[in-house]
UniProtKB/TrEMBL annotation:
This is Homoserine O-acetyltransferase. It catalyses: L-homoserine + acetyl-CoA = O-acetyl-L-homoserine + CoA. One of its GO terms (biological process) is L-methionine biosynthetic process from homoserine via O-succinyl-L-homoserine and cystathionine. The keyword Transferase applies. Its EC number is 2.3.1.31.
Length: 302
């Protein structure tokens, strides 16, 4: 089944070339099914890239998905054109009375700041509180995961001695959980962050469960309240070259940046990286949409 997108959204052209099933409003209105309404709070600076990353995964399931993009009202993005934001994004004030089947809260380049010093923190707290009554399941990614762990469960983050940057091996801690159904015993996933959380703090919290972890990268996938809240500390949604773009961006700025671990062939940044986590990215998002959104959400929200 398709993902429904506006005709003029730039990510649409990218996804259509990859044979992702897309339809517009006119065709979607003729479908006699109950589509899923997914809200994406995009806190990343290059919003169009993040849109393509997420839509590629949301558009590869048997479900029709309506996408709604959310921006902060208390902070104006400097890396995305005002025209793009005006055309495709809305603010929390405009949707706070609505119900959504699922929501994604992305990462943000503010991880070295205390949460309370982030310009839009109070707005994000209001949104995270709202998700508990207005969203069936919320997926938090990277800094978004750390923000959720801190706000909902009091789990603090700490600064790493060096950036967690590269492709790391992960194990499945609980194979009975549907979110990881079909996962290999060991699989790869990208990470890119300067901060982390302590696994022992999560294990002590009775409301949290670690579903997957890495010896090198720590706790990776966690959930609470039967999947109403899901936290992922890495970036399964990344494309093959995303970490390379990040590495070269910092290198060309003259910053002391390390080569991503286990990423470039022969550890040579001149060699194009290969995507070795794509299947698990699709599987994770498919499982989330099916088991925690579609199977759990009411046909009609009251």
């Amino acid at each position: 089944m398709p993902i429904k997108l506006p005709k003029l959204l730039p990510a649409r052209d990218i996804l259509e070339k990859e044979n992702i099933f897309i339809m517009d409003d006119e065709r979607a209105s003729q479908q006699d099914i109950r589509p899923l309404n997914i809200l994406i709070l995009n806190l990343m600076p290059e919003k169009e890239k993040t849109e393509a990353h997420l839509l590629r995964l949301l558009g590869n399931t048997p479900l029709q998905v309506n996408i709604h993009f959310l921006k902060t009202a208390t902070y104006e993005s400097k890396n995305t054109s005002p025209y793009h934001l005006e055309q495709f994004y809305t603010t929390f004030k405009e949707i706070k009375e609505k119900k959504f089947d699922g929501m994604i809260i992305t990462g943000a380049p503010v991880e070295n700041m205390p949460f309370e010093q982030v310009e839009y923190w109070e707005e994000l707290v209001e949104i995270m509180n709202w998700t508990k009554t207005n969203v069936t399941s919320t997926l938090h990614i990277c800094w978004g995961a750390q923000a959720a762990l801190y706000h909902h469960f009091g789990i603090h983050k700490y600064e790493l001695p060096e950036k967690c940057f590269g492709i790391f091996s992960h194990i499945v801690n609980d194979r009975s959980e549907k979110l990881l159904r079909g996962f290999d015993d060991i699989y790869l996933a990208p990470h890119s962050r300067h901060t982390d959380v302590v696994m022992e703090d999560i294990e002590k919290c009775p409301d949290l469960k670690i579903l997957s972890s890495s010896e090198e990268a720590g706790a990776f996938i966690m959930y609470a309240n039967g999947g109403r809240q899901i936290m992922i500390t890495g970036h399964l949604e990344y494309e093959a070259q995303t970490l390379a773009e990040e590495y070269w961006r910092d290198f060309n700025k003259g910053l002391a940046t390390q080569i991503p671990v286990n990423y470039f062939p022969d550890n040579n940044p001149e060699n194009p990286a290969l995507n070795r986590w794509r299947c698990h990215a699709h599987l994770l998002f498919s499982n989330w949409l099916n088991y925690y959104v579609y199977q759990a959400t009411p046909f009609e929200w009251n």
